[in-house]
Amino acid sequence: MNETNGSEQPEFRSAEEAVGWITGRMKFGIRPGLARMELMMEKLGHPHRRLKFIHVAGTNGKGSTCAFLTKALVQCGYDVGTFTSPYIERYQNRIQYNGRDIDDESLVSLANTIKPVFDEIAASEWGAPTMFEVSTALAILYFAKVAFPDFVVWETGLGGRLDSTNIVTPIVSVITNVGHDHMEILGDTLEQIASEKAGIIKPGVPVISAAEQSEVIEVLRRTASERKSTLYLLNEAFRFEPVASVLDRQTLNFSGPFRELANVDIALNGAHQLKNAAVALMTLEVLRQYYAVVLDDEPLYEAMRTAQWPGRLEMVSHSPRLLLDGAHNPEGAQTLAEALRTIYRYDKLHLMIAMMPTKQHDGVLKALLPLADTLIVTEPDFFKKAEAGELAELARRMLVELGKPTDVVVEPDWNKALDLLTGRTGPDDLAVVTGTLYLVSDVRSRMLHGKLSDKGW
């Protein structure tokens, strides 16, 4: 089955070799732009044109929204491809068919198909494709030539306009929200960031969003109007009403332009997940109305009730209680803080955090420090990271301003830091691991499987 690269032997003989090549591209960084993707798609025969994409962008909530959409469509009888990033445990997590990771044989075969195209582009004026571009091309080939799903739930990697996923023309676009993230690439203001996210809006393709800031809504309205795309905006075209909320179960009423859905249960925790669920329901309603997608109530309700997304308010241990949440930007940290105030009960809160160097550390710490009795600052096992000592010093300065006595511990080795965290967490306490998903990924793998996760986007 394996393709060759012009020689008698294939370039990659195992999934480990293929993944090593792809993730090894990560150290060469991010290079926004679609020229290399367009070249790859042309040389591969434009496989993306055979697929129906649901394109999902946004600062926070993308993964959860993708989880709701995938679960609902699969539960209602459709075959669904899903492309998400970053993955939580292994590279194959990011490319799934009906909730199952891409198989190793397909991964190796498709990597061998892509490699000669990669080499040809690398030798051109455009330079070598990035890790994310290779991953995007591999996902497209898998869905178009191996799995053949009815729909592809397609999450952006970074931004939207220049993201490699924007090579596709979807049947519906989703922009969950817009906040402060990746500002070194997307821009310094919400308007600039919104413009990048709005880059996924295609002419005539409906778009759903839960954006709430007036300056962001203005950008989305203008872009949708210019491209003659119908904009379904939360609190205008559709709404939701919280009905009940207990740990591991929330209930909402949804009302949209086409119908109402009462008493929809979800298992994901946090008030923000009600909003993500409403966005997913509105997206499904658009599919139902525009494309005659059949969504019977019973499987739809069951899908919403059982959808899960790892690493977001996920309790991975009950003795001691250890909660994971990848709150890596200020908005995510505020959402986590609100959940810690309203959902969880504890005597003391022990917080472990690691961050990437480009994130807004002060905004994240500002949201979380007032709640923490202990702060353990560590570093992800990743080639890019914020230095634990520097992050701890910022935390100490902020704690002085808050007038809050909090024990701050610096332990760059995340394994040792995790031992310190669990050792401090009493029966009535709560331990929280947060910050970069690269830390959350490793902690989750160790706590649930007793092994390290793979690495990379």
Task: Describe what you observe in this structure.
With 457 residues, the chain is of the alpha/beta class. It has 15 helices and 17 strands. The strands form 3 sheets. The protein has an 8-stranded mixed sheet, with helices on both faces. A 6-stranded mixed sheet has the order 12-13-17-14-15-16, sandwiched between helices. Strands 9-10-11 form a 3-stranded antiparallel sheet. Strand 9 (239-246) and strand 10 form a beta hairpin. Helix 4 packs across helix 5 and helix 11 packs parallel to helix 12 (361-368). The longest helix is centred in the middle third of the chain and has 21 residues, at 271-291. It is globular and about 60 Å long.
Structural class of the secondary elements? Answer: alpha/beta
Percentage of residues in DSSP E strands: 15-25%
Shape: globular
Instruction: Count up the helices.
Output: 15
As an assembly, this protein is single chain
- The strand line-up of the biggest sheet is 4-3-2-5-1-6-7-8
How much is the radius of gyration in Å? 22 Å
What is the typical, i.e. mean, pLDDT?
A: 93
| Uncertain stretches | 1-7
Question: Main beta sheet: strand number and arrangement?
Answer: 8 strands, mixed
Cα end-to-end separation:
26 Å
DSSP, total strands: 17
User: Roughly how much helix do the residues carry, as a percent range?
Assistant: 40-55%
